[in-house]
Structure formats: structure tokens, C-alpha cells
Amino acid sequence: MSFVAAPPAEPPATVEDAVAGDGWYPALSIQSFRDAQRIPETASGKRVREALLGGMVSASVGLAAWRAVREEEGAADLAATSEVTIGGENRAVILWRRAVHAFAAADLAETHTDISATDAGRDRNALREDPCDALRREATAALRDLMGKTRCRVALK
């Protein structure tokens, strides 16, 4: 009987933690997103980065008209749109991050269903549709808060 050892696997390429904004919107941290949304390490850094980029696109599309008005008013960046700080952070930046995180987490919850191959994991995946809707509502609420628009809940029966 003989044994042949396989060469060590190449370590996965590292992904830079910061996902740059466009200069007007700030950069966001992959690790902060993982921590805030409890994203497991089984979701690769590249996949999480793509989800954050998608979240940034979704949030910026939702804010496009609002941003154009703020820029016409002379705002050099998102932080310049609010003088309010909460916990030492600019309110507008907090709401931007909240919206992007919620959009990105919804994307991962919908598309990253291979986190667990156990029966319990499959059962959890079947229940993910509702949390995705809740995350999208959270993102929309953050965008509306940022734009200074009211929220309205309607129950149709």
C-alpha cells in the first residue's frame, strides 16, 4: 500500500475589505457587513463583495433623483446632506449603509442557498422568502428616511 500526498491547495484569493463608493457615496466594509448581517464565512468574500455592489446599485438607483437635488444644492458628498450625528456617525451615512446592507443581505439570502446541505438547512432555505421581503422593506424604509419621505402601511383585505 502506498500513499501519495496531494499538494496543498492554493489559498483563496483575498478580497479587499473596503468596497469603494463612487466618491459621493462612501465605501463600505465587507467585514462590517458580515458582522452586522451575520453572514457566514461559507459565503465567499467575492460573493459578499458582489452582493454589496448590487446593494449599492439598488440604493443609488432609489436615491438618484434625491441625490441630483442635493448636488444642485451644493452637497459635495452624502455626509454633507445631514448635520445630524448619531453615535458619532453622520445620519445620512448610517441610513445609506443600512439600505445597502439590507439589499445585499436579501440578495445573499435568495441566492446563497447552498450554505447547508442538511435537511435542517434545506428547511431554513425554504423559509428565506419572507426574510428577504423584510430586508427589502428595511432597505426601502432607510431610503425613505434618508430622503425625508414618510412611510405608509396599507393592509388590503
What are its keywords?
globular, single chain, two-stranded antiparallel ribbon, 157 residues
Describe the structure.
The model has no long low-confidence stretch (mean pLDDT 82). α2 crosses α4 (91-111) and α4 (91-111) runs antiparallel to α6. This protein has one domain (18-146). Strands 1-2 form a two-stranded antiparallel ribbon. It is 53% helix and 5% strand. It is built from 6 helices and 4 strands; from the N terminus they run ββαααββααα. The longest helix is centred in the middle third of the chain and has 21 residues, at 91-111.
Oligomeric state as shown: single chain
Strand order of the largest sheet: 1-2
Number of contiguous helices? 6
How many whole angstroms does the radius of gyration measure? 19 Å
The percent of residues in helical segments reads 40-55%
Beta-strand residue percentage:
5-15%
Label the overall shape.
globular
Low-pLDDT runs of 5+ residues are none
Give the domain tally: 1
Order of helices and strands: EEHHHEEHHH
Q: N- to C-terminal separation?
A: 72 Å
Return the average pLDDT rounded to an integer.
Answer: 82
Largest sheet descriptor: 2 strands, antiparallel
How many strands? 4
Q: Specify the structural class.
A: mainly alpha
Topology, pairings included?
Layout: E1 18-19, E2 28-29, H1 30-37, H2 45-62, H3 64-72, E3 85-86, E4 89-90, H4 91-111, H5 119-126, H6 129-147
Antiparallel strand pairs: 1-2, 3-4
